[in-house]
Amino acid sequence: MNxxxxxxxxxxxxxxxxxxxxxxxVTEILDRGVASYLKGDYPPAIKDFERxxxxxxxxxxxxxxxxxxxxEGELLFNRGRFEEAREYCIRxxxxxxxxxxxxxxxxxxxxxxxxxxxxxxPPPPAPDPAIKNLQRExxxxxxxxxxxxxxxxxxxxxxxxxxAELKVLKEKLEESSEDMKxxxxxxxxxxxxxxxxxxxxxxxxxxxxxxxxxxLSRLREVAEDSNIQLEDLDEKFDARIREAExxxxxxEERVARSINTMIDGQREAVKRVSFSASGQAKKxxxxxxxxxEKQFDENTERLLDLLNVQxxxxxxxxxxxxxLTGEGGRDVITDVDMNIRxxxxxxxxxxxxxxxxxxxEKMLRPYLKDPSSRVRANALIAIYSYNPDLAxxxxxxxxxxxxxxxxxxxxxxxxx
Length: 416
Prior knowledge:
Blueprint: H1 2-16, H2 24-39, H3 42-55, H4 59-78, H5 82-95, H6 100-117, H7 129-275, H8 280-320, H9 338-353, H10 357-364, H11 373-383, H12 388-399, H13 404-415
């Protein structure tokens, strides 16, 4: 019964006593030894506890090894194996020199060993049967008393060991309670800090929301005003553009009539001279014809320059008279360069106004090398009906250009 109680107490201590933080291998060996100890299989437990002590100085393993020595020594003593019991007692005393249970068991084992070593005296004469019975009862009583004293000593040793373990456990529980208190204090501080931070973040979000609401309201008002202004400006701009287009159309008609009149006059002059000349005079007429064509080309270039200047003036006049602002999320309306646009428009006028294909081709050729992609694309489209090979070669050159606008204009011209 006492042994069962002691075993239960040891098991409870082993369950609730925290590990000392040893390595996984040490913990595994120690747990295996404890399992053997609780089963009453002390030799394997002794081997495991000794191995743990070889690996590290473990107070828990030391106490359990001491108790295992005593338990195994007591079993061997009861079996009459006094030499082995004395050896286990000596091992227990090496671990705890003040162990009274080990000293008591060692003393009893040595007495048994000495009594076995002393030769037995010659048998006395046969005593009286009554005396013999009394002696046998007295010997049995002495043996029972000796065994009882041994058990009492063992229980005292176990009590001392359990008291020490309980004391250590109490100290660890006190340390754990202090640690838990420190953790609770830290948690309270962290909670307060989080509440302060959350409050600050919430205040910032509220301020941002209010600011955003005010800004959106102001932006909506500005957008409404800007939309009204832009609608008025769009109407004015459309009116100016229509006026500029009408002026440009009138200018195109006047230029076309002037060019046709000039071309017809030069043709008539050439024909009259050609019909009235023969022989050597034809060479002179050819020279005169070349001179007239050269003058015609020069006049054509000057006429194109005049068209460019007039178209640019019209475009500039339309753009300067209309001023747009960037309010309401819209930028200023922009277009291509005025000079580029006027030259591109002049290129489109040539095939509509010049009836002679040769003259129109000569007038369009310079624009095939224009640095502006828009002007070059318009010239390419216009000259295609006069010289398809030259137009396709120009299209290929534009498509192979490193300038992305040239490539885009080539793609547009190919689609046209």
